[in-house]
């Protein structure tokens, strides 16, 4: 039985923190507060759960990116720590993949640091595989080639810490699940992400 199901068997309200970038935030989704992936996850799970959206547009795991790029410089980072989550879903990599930012060793190191901070709060941390990118070269600069390596590193990190991985990649291999930019999921892509979590948890 998955640990979150054990908690669900009690009278406790389960707090889930969705940590990530604009894919988590729900950038440019109309009615984002109701249709981002964390919002749709909340609807699927019901009143015994509280799902927090701690996504931030442009955020990176890498801590040396410029212009307040690092997730740890964002207000939502501190808010996520203070939310006292029972479970964290950590998904970063799209912005890290940009050619001007990408450094495989730095990504692995800084994602590990962030992971360990959340593991200090709860043993139930799921690592999200970054969604695919269908953008044209130069548009948003998200690099699918680098994301291939990022996903491998996420799996390696999960194995090292004996954690589970939520696949946000395979269910979104249909370009029709994305907005015109080819990077940000639309409401239907966000729905696929929410179902990926519930299916993974067996809920």
Going across the biggest sheet, name each strand in turn: 2-1-3-4-5
What structural category arises from helix and sheet content? alpha/beta
- Radius of gyration (Å): 16 Å
- Tell me roughly what share of residues is in helical segments: 25-40%
Mean pLDDT: 93
Low-confidence parts: none
- Count every beta strand, where a strand is a DSSP E run of 2 or more residues: 5
Question: Between the first and last Cα atoms, what is the distance in angstroms?
Answer: 11 Å
The profile of the biggest β sheet is: 5 strands, parallel
Tally the helices: what do you get?
8
Shape: globular
SSE ordering: HEHHHEHEHEHEH
Strand content: 5-15%
Describe this structure in words.
The protein is built from eight helices and five strands. α6 links the parallel β3 and β4 (125-129). It has a five-stranded parallel β-sheet, with helices on both faces. It starts with a helix and ends with a helix. The chain is of the alpha/beta class and 203 residues long. It has helices spanning 3-8, 22-25, 32-35, 37-45, 75-82, 104-119, 144-161, 187-201, and strands spanning 14-20, 49-55, 87-91, 125-129, 164-167. 39% of the residues lie in helices and 14% in strands. α4 (37-45) crosses α8 and α6 crosses α7. The protein is globular and about 50 Å long. The mean pLDDT is 93.
Comma- or semicolon-separated keywords:
single chain; 203 residues; alpha/beta; five-stranded parallel sheet; 8 helices
Q: Topology, pairings included?
A:
Blueprint: H1 3-8, E1 14-20, H2 22-25, H3 32-35, H4 37-45, E2 49-55, H5 75-82, E3 87-91, H6 104-119, E4 125-129, H7 144-161, E5 164-167, H8 187-201
């Amino acid at each position: 039985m998955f640990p979150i199901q054990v908690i669900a068997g009690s009278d406790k309200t389960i707090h889930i923190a969705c940590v990530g970038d604009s894919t988590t935030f729900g950038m440019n989704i109309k009615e984002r507060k109701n249709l981002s992936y964390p919002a749709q996850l909340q609807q699927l799970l019901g009143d015994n759960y509280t799902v927090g959206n701690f996504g931030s547009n442009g955020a990176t795991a890498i801590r040396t990116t410029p212009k307040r790029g690092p997730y740890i410089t964002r207000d939502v980072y501190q808010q996520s720590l203070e939310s006292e989550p029972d479970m964290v879903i950590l998904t970063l990599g799209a912005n890290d993949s940009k050619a001007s930012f990408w450094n495989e060793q730095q990504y692995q190191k800084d994602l590990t640091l962030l992971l360990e901070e959340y593991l200090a709060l709860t043993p139930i941390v799921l690592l999200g595989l970054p969604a695919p990118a269908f953008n044209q070269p130069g548009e948003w600069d998200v690099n699918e080639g680098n994301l291939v390596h990022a996903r491998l590193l996420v799996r390696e990190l999960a194995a090292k810490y004996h954690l589970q991985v939520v696949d946000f990649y395979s269910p979104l291999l249909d370009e029709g699940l994305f907005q015109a930019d080819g990077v940000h999921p639309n409401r239907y892509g966000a729905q696929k992400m929410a179902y990926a979590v519930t299916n993974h948890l067996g809920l």
